UniProtKB/TrEMBL annotation:
This is AB hydrolase-1 domain-containing protein. It comes from the Eukaryota. It holds the Pfam family DUF1057. It comes from Diploscapter pachys.
Length: 289
């Protein structure tokens, strides 16, 4: 939908590793009047790296801002001071994140004045098992950066990601993923959560009980910080999902500000396993019943 949408736009932000393809199961279920844009952060296989590149949140947020402007959802910076820069009031935008991308979805939704925020398998406020021990990530990146280090570390980094069952095409992208995971904000998300609670954002926070990268208690700590209706789903059945599809989307249409849902028997890939549910909730967040 290159011409835009009068209903609203979803901007989806992937993790590390990740790409716009992380959301390929989701957007077909969206209402056809909703515009869906899956961004590809530079260096992850679909958008070229910039040299030098730090793979930190400053760069990621700058990239998101640039894309929001390119999509004509907000004014160019020279027409509006950055301190006052917001999405146009007549444009409805929901930021969606998966895993590492949830930090950037949160920052973008709060800073850019969005209408909604969707987080799937979000990382927490302290290190989870996927980025521990910190020394391992440090070695993967620092040794790679040494003269001649790329030649040695490229196959090693690829092997590490293969063992973790995280798909990357080669050791160079494994390095970029490791760099990206070294720069997570973690506890620095807390002020943004408070701002989100004080705002009019519609929020959907989904996390899973069998997430092999992020412990339940870490996600639970964050979920409790959001002032949302909390639901626990213990059955992974069509009947259970139908119940949720009646409850949650209708709640959004009626004016509820948000839901935190724990799917006890789901995995790190809620973007796939709960694609239909998430899409219908997003439609409801835009007021489509």
């Amino acid at each position: 939908m290159p011409e835009g949408s009068s209903v609203g736009t979803v901007i989806a932000l992937h993790g590390a590793p990740g790409s716009h393809k992380d959301f390929k199961y989701l957007y077909p279920h969206l209402h056809p009047s909703i515009r869906f844009v899956g961004l590809n952060f530079p260096g992850f296989g679909h958008a070229n790296c910039c040299d030098p590149q730090n793979f930190d949140n400053v760069e990621r947020q700058s990239f998101v801002r640039s894309m929001v402007i390119a999509l004509k959802l907000a004014p160019a910076p020279d027409k509006s001071p950055l301190t006052d820069w917001k999405i146009y009031e007549d444009k409805k935008v929901i930021f969606m994140g998966h895993s590492r991308g949830c930090e950037n979805a949160l920052f973008s939704a709060v800073d850019f004045g969005a209408n909604g925020l969707v987080m799937l398998n979000p990382i927490g406020l302290r290190p989870h098992r996927g980025i521990r021990p910190a020394l391992a990530l440090k070695m993967m990146t620092n040794l790679y950066d040494l003269p001649g280090g790329r030649f040695i570390m490229k196959p090693i980094n690829k092997k590490i990601y293969d063992i973790l069952k995280l798909k990357v095409p080669d050791g160079d992208q494994a390095y970029r993923c490791a760099r990206t995971m070294r720069t997570v904000a973690l506890a620095d998300q807390a002020p943004y959560i408070e701002k989100a609670n004080e705002s009019s954002l519609k929020i959907l926070y989904l996390y899973a009980g069998k997430d092999f990268l992020i412990e339940n208690e870490i996600q639970e700590e964050v979920a409790k910080r959001y002032k949302l209706n909390r639901i626990t789903s213990t059955e992974k059945t069509p009947e259970e999902e139908e119940k949720l599809l009646k409850l949650v989307p209708q709640g959004f249409v009626k004016g509820e500000n948000g839901y935190s849902i724990f799917f006890a028997n789901d995995t790190h890939y809620l973007n796939k396993d709960r694609a239909k549910f998430t899409a219908q909730c997003v439609s409801a967040m835009f007021g489509i019943s």
